[in-house]
Amino acid sequence: MTDKNNLIVYCELEDGRIADVSLELLTKGRVLANSLGVKLEALVVGDKLACIEDQIFPYGADTVYKVEDARLYPYTSNPHAAVLINLFREIEPQIALMGATCIGRDLGPRVSSCLHSGLTADCTSLEIGDHTDPKTGKQYTDLLYQIRPAFGGNIVATIVNPECRPQMATVREGVMKKEIFDPAHKGTVVNLDPAKYVSDADFVVEIIDRHIEKSKVNIKGASIIVAGGYGVGSKENFDLLFELADVLGAEVGASRAAVDAGFIEHERQIGQTGVTVRPKLYIACGISGQIQHIAGMQESSMIISINSDPDAPINTIADYVITGNMEDIVPKLIKYYKKNSK
Questions:
Q1: Residues 93, 99, 105, 111: what is their CA dihedral angle, to the nearest 10 degrees?
Q2: Is the peptide bond before 166 cis (omega within 30 degrees of 0)?
Q3: In what order do the strands lie in the sheet with 63-68?
Q4: Mean pLDDT, to the nearest integer, of 290-298?
Q5: 74: cis peptide before it, omega within 30°?
Q6: Kindly report the CA angle at 142 between 295 and 149, in degrees rounded to 5?
Q7: What angle do CA 274, 278, 280 make, to 5 degrees?
Q8: CA nearest to 25, candidates 52, 67, 62, 59
Q9: What integer is the mean pLDDT of 253-272?
Q10: Cα(287)–Cα(274) distance, rounded to whole angstroms?
Q11: What DSSP line would sit under 275-302, residue for residue?
Q12: In angstroms, rounded to a whole number, what is the distance separating the alpha carbons of residues 85 and 62?
């Protein structure tokens, strides 16, 4: 077995592909591992894992652990949790990362609870840094800073875990950037014996049939997004945003306030409790810019804010600010783009 105290990423598997969120975490993990001077490791649990490492190594992993058994795919709680708990006891990683997906949100708390390690969910940033305990004065170096909005999004909290290991965090898809480290990078593959990590008793649940409804909306992949907030005012006014999006070849997004008000469906929600996006152009209409929303779109290349409030928080991160009523401004934009796109 390899040396201990490395950084490990749990890689989700769906239809033979490693999930984007896992590749994003490997990208970030490579940077963190370099900063700590440790290895970046990946763990894949499932079935038919031949050559799965070919999808992982380009993102910088030094070691890929594979646990292969027909009963390990699709995901079920007990067997996957058993694999992680027993493997982590053996290799003692100092940091363990996973996606804040349906799977990660189920798996992470089970593993951290069993290992008494603690877990920070829905992090928006991960960094390495030092910490001094204000009570004892004890100094810690090279801790994982787990950064996320807290108290309803009114502050950004930096959470540290000085004593317990592994330091565990989940991150939502799209928050971190996915970048290939080196297309030719190769590491070590370690095939683990499933019987050593998971018992037959853990397979008490059998999946007889499984249906996953794919999302009809692809906000995450859109290069232009027209997003509306509570300030849009009504479902009818959102039709204007759809019209503008149609002219621009864009997708329509929304803030949580607009979704909660019933103006638009939840699958278009952008922010801490929705989708994280990084389009080339983000047009924010009637969005005040609460920290949870900004967390989901601040990586946009260019941000245009249309708002009747000149002091709206979103204006501080916008590249261009148009002050005025959305109902007046958006029709003019539609007219202009229609005229100039012919």
A1: -10
A2: yes
A3: 119-123, 167-171, 95-99, 7-11, 40-46, 63-68, 188-192
A4: 88
A5: yes
A6: 20
A7: 140
A8: 59
A9: 93
A10: 15
A11: B----SEEEEES----HHHHHTTTT-SE
A12: 21
- Closest by CA to 336, choosing from 244, 230, 257, 258, is 244
Cα gap 216→23, rounded to integer Å:
23
302 close to 286: Cβ distance less than 8 angstroms: no
Q: Which two tokens stand for residue 17?
A: 């592909």
**Separation of alpha carbons 176 and 299, rounded Å:** 10
CB 63 within 8 A of CB 2: yes
Q: How far apart are CA 84 and CA 333, in angstroms?
A: 53
Find the length of the chain: 342
The pLDDT of residue 1: 47
* Distances from the Cα of 259 to the Cα of 230, 232, 272, 286, angstroms: 8, 11, 13, 13
- Amino acid present at 79: P
Q: How far apart are CA 85 and CA 77, in angstroms?
A: 12
Count of helices and strands (H, E) across the chain = 9, 17
Q: What pTM, to 2 d.p., does this model score? A: 0.82
Q: How far is CA 183 from the centre of its chain?
A: 23
Tokens of 145: 């800073």
pLDDT per residue as tens digits for the range 53-106: 999 999 999 999 999 999 999 999 999 999 999 999 999 999 999 999 999 999
Mean model confidence pLDDT for the chain: 91
Among residues 250, 247, 260, 261, the alpha carbon closest in space to that of 284 is found at 250
Q: Tokens for 43, please give them.
A: 């763990």
